[in-house]
Structures are given as structure tokens and as C-alpha cells.
């Protein structure tokens, strides 16, 4: 009788565990469901990164490249979003551009999920939110993922004890996990690990498509010293400096900083050194990335409201000017798109023989007034 009782208890425990396992597996698998993009009418075609690095074909790294070709000769602008999937404004700005841009001269290429694998997992033990939802004007909603800054170890394992990349960057000790960081492995290696292949695909695309200028969109925690800053390779610094002046005239501070000569493997350094493109990278404020943030929820992601960081600023521990009610996602998206627009304007001044012209959502004030509900389109 006791043996039967133990058997039934064990079966009950297994059944309960199975129920939890099913729910957990369903939640994990949902991270692989890519959010749709309702591309603007100016879309020419959706290319794949494997067109520039064959090794990516059939892998999670075979990202989409949204191509907008005006048909009028000019330069080409590449916009990289989602290099680090926990930096939400980069991905969201890229999607907003893909859904609203109209290119009238030259071409614009947009990659919303530069590290697509990173969107399929979150940081363990950090209590991260894996997705957030925004309401739209028509009453529908759209859901977007929050991922990890590194490639999913399911797709690339193990991390090596020692690694030296094609840029000369060496990863040793606690840095070895950075072998899964897209923004550490440029210019990449077609025969390397998945993350290197993604970097190689982007580098090859820049070369083969004769891309003129690139913006890699990022965010940083409130402690980061380079918030509201655009890093620029020395060849891109004149253009970035002019953009900085124009941004100031728009009432939006944006510093321009010279890319460090030893920033090996980072896009603004290694792609600038290994291609003819003008390389830039910008950072905006993201309170969900810092160690002082509270509960990770839609309020933190969408509204950027974190009183701990506001108090830390008042107490003199955070130099960045944190607002009492935070910095909402819409403001960070608008800053990214305005920066890209002003960068395009500055590029046209320096390179009038190969201009790029596009419109996208108007001024900073226009975008903030539209709100997330007005920028993104309903999915039909």
C-alpha cells in the first residue's frame, strides 16, 4: 500500500513538473518568434545577410536587410539596429524607419536585428523582461522582444578560453564571453564562429554594395560616460561634428567623439579601418540596463521611469541629467532617427556628388507628438 502511495506521489510530482516545463518551454520558444515589420511603400526588396556570407545560410544569423532604393544615383546609408538586443531604442528606431521612410535619392539599407540570435534569450538571473507591448491608435497592440547583448549560447558554444579576432582584439579570462558580442568581432571571419560570420557578412555587404556611411545604434546604462554621444572613425569625424552642431540647433545635445585607435573589433573602429564607409555609432540613455533599476516591466522599458536613478543623479553619483519622470522610449527613438537624419544632411554637405535624400517622420517634436502609437503601423 505504501509503495503505491509513493508511486502516486512521484507521478503527481512528475505531472506538476511537466506542466511547468510545458509553460516554460512555450515561453522560451516564443522568444524565437520575430516581430513583424510593416515596411513602407518605398521598400525595394528584403535581402538576406547570407547573400554576403554564404556560411550564414540557414542559420539564425541570416538576418534580413530592408533595402530602399530610390532609383536615383547617389550614396548608400546603412542603419544597424539591434546590435545589442537589450538596447531597445536601437531596434525600435530601425523598425520605425523601415515602416516610415521614403528615399528620394540614393539608397538606405536597414537591419533591425543585427544580432538576431541575441533576441532569442535574456541574461540569466537578471530578472529581465523578454518582451514588451505597446498600444496603437486603432486599438490593436504590437509586441517587441528584449534580448541579450550576446549571441545565444545555444547557437554558439563553447566560449573559448582564448580568442584573437581578425581585428587583433584578444579575449582572455572574464572577457571570453565577448566572442558572442557582434560589436567586438569586426571585421569578422567567414570561416569563424556564428558571431564572426555575422560581422563578416556586414563587412562584405558594405564593400560589395559600396555603402557610403553607417550608423550603429546603441544605448547605455545611466552610469555610462558616452550617453548622447556619437563615436566616429577619423574619416567620419567631420561629418559627425557637423551633425553634432545641427543636433544642438535642434535643441538636442549630441557630442561627437573620435573613435579610439585601440577600439579593436568595434564597428566604428574596425569597419572604418577595413572598408571605405564612414563609420559612426551612437548611444542613448537606457535605465533598464543599469544595476540600480527596480522591477523590469513595461513602465521601465517604455516610459523609462526609474526613480532610483533620478535619486542617484540628485545625490551626485550619476553625472547624466536624469529627468524626474525618466526618458521615455519614444524620446530615445526620436533622438536616434533625428541623429541619422542630421548625419545624412552633414554627409550631403561633404559629399555633394553622391547625396542621400530621405524623409522619415519629420522633426524630433513631430515624432514625440506622434508617440509610439502613431509611429508604428497596425499588423494586418
Task: Give a brief description.
This protein has 380 residues and is an alpha/beta fold. It has helices spanning 2-30, 88-100, 194-208, 237-249, 267-274, 298-303, 307-314, 329-350, 364-375, and strands at residues 45-48, 64-69, 76-80, 102-105, 107-111, 131-135, 141-145, 162-164, 170-172, 213-220, 229-232, 255-258, 278-285, 357-359.
Could you list some keywords that capture this structure?
380 residues; alpha/beta; Aminopeptidase; 8-stranded mixed sheet; globular
Structure description:
The chain is an alpha/beta fold and 380 residues long. The protein has a single domain, classed as Zn peptidases (Aminopeptidase, 3-Layer(aba) Sandwich), CATH 3.40.630. It is built from nine helices and 14 strands. The chain has an eight-stranded mixed β-sheet, sandwiched between helices. The chain has a two-stranded antiparallel ribbon with strand order 4-14. Strands 6-7 form a two-stranded antiparallel sheet. β8 and β9 form a beta hairpin. α4 packs across α8. It is globular. The relative contact order is 0.15.
